[in-house]
Amino acid sequence: MPSPSRKTDERLNEMGKVKKGLGWIEWLRGWLYVILEFFFQRIMASHLQNPMPLPPVNEITCIITGCTSGIGLELARQLAESGAHVVMAVRNQKAAHELIQKWQTEWCGKGLPLNIEVMELDLLSLESVVQFSEAWNARLGPLHVLINNAGIFSIGEPQKFSKNGYEQHMQVNHLAPALLSVLLLPSLVRGSPSRIINVNSVMHYVGFVDPEDMNVVSGKRKFTSVMGYSGSKLAQIMFSSILHKRLPAEAGISVACVSPGIVDTNVTRDLPKLVQVGYHLIPYFVFSPQEGSRSALFGATDPQVPEYCELLKADEWPTCAYISLDCRPSNPSEEAHNIENSYRVWEKTLEMIGLPSDAVERLIEGEEVSCHYSSH
Ligand SMILES: NC(=O)c1ccc[n+]([C@@H]2O[C@H](COP(=O)([O-])OP(=O)(O)OC[C@H]3O[C@@H](n4cnc5c(N)ncnc54)[C@H](OP(=O)(O)O)[C@@H]3O)[C@@H](O)[C@H]2O)c1
Questions:
Q1: What's CA 70's distance to the chain center, in Å?
Q2: What domains, with CATH codes, occur in the chain?
């Protein structure tokens, strides 16, 4: 039986109202944002200190995904050095343990030993997300901050699919973090006021999501890695916007997406060697990982963030908070404001990750929810 959202889509399709992609002007404007961010990010963020001083975080427990390199590594180190309990949710546990050892040695004599632990999480596997969430929730402890940082941009690579059957950018950058965020709600409620911070990207401005073709397999559009990456980042904002609306104010959970800027990390690992060398030769324009970590650190710790999220909710703003690389509230793309499409992305995402449509409400009420996603 077709789902209600599919029936609505079919109706809108017949009326010619379902958008098939970004218009030329929207697309050009999107690329202009990307170019402006590249050339002017240092000027935009010139008021920020580096490293960014953090408010007291001794009482907070923070799960960070993908912190064995780049921005995530900086987030884990800086939050731990500022006193937070940091959980490194990673697929390469050996690398994470080696990093902890190095950080503890460097930190020795400067304060209490760092409070960091490692847990296994592979976002290419929804099973791994469920196992991680079950193990964490079973502790019955609070979670104050979840930072969905891990991400991939397989530049120039052909289209690849996860074992769950989903296009890999969509799974790693959007579907798996969405599942993680929803399944961890019971712990986030215990840690309330708490936050879900998604490390997003300016590239979402050139992204488009067709909720009926999240895997880009219908043949309507030709897949490219730029399309896969930008679409997954836009899907994350659209899903987060509805999650932000669905969470009752009393739950005390803020949801925000942040843009780190254009940052010199391992994200360029799939670029041709020559382009990689070029990337490292332009340090004036490109942020260091420490500079790139500032917007996520701001989102995770600044006391004004929950207030701002509440304000957006009270105003029934179509999107969740979007914090720019200069740590200022900003607006995501025009398409991210397309509320009908955001609801369709929300419904389709829940279907793909195997959660019932009332999962958020049930988990907030303390009920159990099981998830039934596909596995090939
Ligand atoms: N760098 C930029 O210019 C830029 C710009 C905008 C947004 N971002 C976003 O910033 C975030 C961090 O990226 P980065 O630039 O710091 O890149 P990075 O250095 O490549 O770090 C990505 C991290 O994600 C982890 N990861 C990848 N696939 C994973 C999986 N299946 N399961 C668990 N962890 C996985 C990686 O772990 P492994 O080491 O095991 O692969 C690594 O720790 C991403 O969401 C990215 O989209 C980056």
A1: 15
A2: 20-364 (3.40.50.720)
